[in-house]
Amino acid sequence: MEPRLDRLIAELRRRFGREDHVSEVEAWLSSQGYDGGQIGTIVSAWLTDIRLKEGGRPPEESWPVRVQGPHERGRFAADAWGYLLGLRATGVLAAMELEHVIDRLLMQVDGRISLEDARAVVDTGFGDGGGSPGEPLIVH
User: Is the pTM of this model over 0.85?
Assistant: First the structure.
């Protein structure tokens, strides 16, 4: 990690705990002047840091990379796709949960899928009222 990101993650550790919702961290980062792409990178690093402190393995050792299929190319904005992969890489979403979110987004959103669309589906427990914000989503 680069030194600036290390300092920022240390600041997030002081300000926020695991029980804090990602949207609170994103709001604080936005108030500090970071853009959507930077926020996605920072939040992903923060969640990875939390997971590693809880005894988890680094994400690159845990899961293969998810590549867009032909029907997904062009539908997802880069920051929306990165946000979803970040949630998967940090363990917030399991593999099947990620696929469920992707399928839900493809069905519910006409045209390009934005970062806000992706956050809305994840934050509302796939839009069906299940799950609460900040908790891992469970597919039955």
Answer: no
